[in-house]
């Protein structure tokens, strides 16, 4: 069903309202038969998008409300989260920063609601990767991350005014003579302290 403007060729053009065969509805701008310009799209499952379209795809600035209560507000390119945007997750965590192909990618800040901790730094394909700072309530860690875990040289900076330098080392997986059915548990990197100093200006970028 459609009610609204049409052009001389009979294509939907201008402002219109449509109900799609799957039960979704759209209200907004059309150009030459396509959703283009500003509009609001309501999904049957409760999700809702309000923002810009280009030839039926979310493109430009827009806000998407997901059925689980999460929400993304920011840039879209061809139906994907791309550019700069803020995502509020269902558990209350938030990510503000750069996106590419629907994933956190580039520089961004992730805030963990439960602990109040904050990751500020690089992301690659949705994962914490590269130079970053992990900020906790009374101390922070400055270093590099690989696949979501700290690895290599870094330092902990304590609010009382001192620093602990060291490195995260990836332990070697011990082979055990047991059943092969169970996959080995991933081994967490281990922190090895080298020295404790007063505050210094070292940053993970220094070594690049």
Automatic annotation (TrEMBL):
Localization, UniProt: Cytoplasm, Cytoskeleton, Flagellum axoneme
One BP annotation, GO: spermatid development
Any single GO CC term annotated in Swiss-Prot or TrEMBL for this entry: motile cilium
Alphabetically ordered keywords of this record: Cell projection, Cilium, Cytoplasm, Cytoskeleton, Flagellum, Meiosis, Repeat
Major subcellular location class: cytoplasm
Region listing for Disordered, in residue ranges: 1-23
Any single Pfam family the record assigns to this protein: MORN
InterPro entries, per database record: MORN (IPR003409)
Composition bias type Basic and acidic residues, residue spans: 1-12
Highest rank taxon of the organism: Eukaryota
Function, in words: Functions as part of axonemal radial spoke complexes that play an important part in the motility of sperm and cilia.
Name of protein: Radial spoke head 1 homolog
Organism: Irena cyanogastra (Philippine fairy-bluebird)
């Amino acid at each position: 069903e459609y009610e609204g403007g049409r052009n001389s060729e009979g294509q939907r053009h201008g402002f219109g309202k449509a109900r799609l065969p799957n039960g979704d509805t759209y209200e907004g701008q059309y150009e030459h038969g396509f959703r283009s310009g500003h509009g609001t799209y309501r999904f049957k499952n409760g999700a809702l998008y309000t923002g810009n379209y280009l030839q039926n795809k979310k493109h430009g600035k827009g806000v998407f409300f997901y059925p689980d209560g999460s929400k993304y507000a920011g840039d879209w390119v061809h139906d994907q989260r791309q550019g700069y945007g803020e995502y509020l997750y269902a558990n209350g965590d938030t990510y503000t920063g750069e996106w590419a192909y629907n994933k956190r990618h580039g520089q961004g800040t992730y805030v963990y609601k439960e602990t109040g901790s904050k990751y500020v730094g690089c992301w690659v394909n949705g994962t914490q990767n590269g130079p970053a700072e992990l900020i906790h309530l009374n101390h922070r860690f400055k270093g590099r991350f690989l696949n979501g875990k700290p690895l290599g040289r870094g330092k902990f900076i304590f609010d009382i005014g001192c620093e602990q330098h060291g490195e995260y080392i990836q332990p070697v997986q011990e082979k055990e003579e047991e059943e092969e059915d169970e996959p080995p548990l991933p081994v967490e990197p281990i922190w090895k302290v080298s020295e404790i100093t007063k505050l210094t200006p070292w940053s993970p970028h220094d070594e690049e």
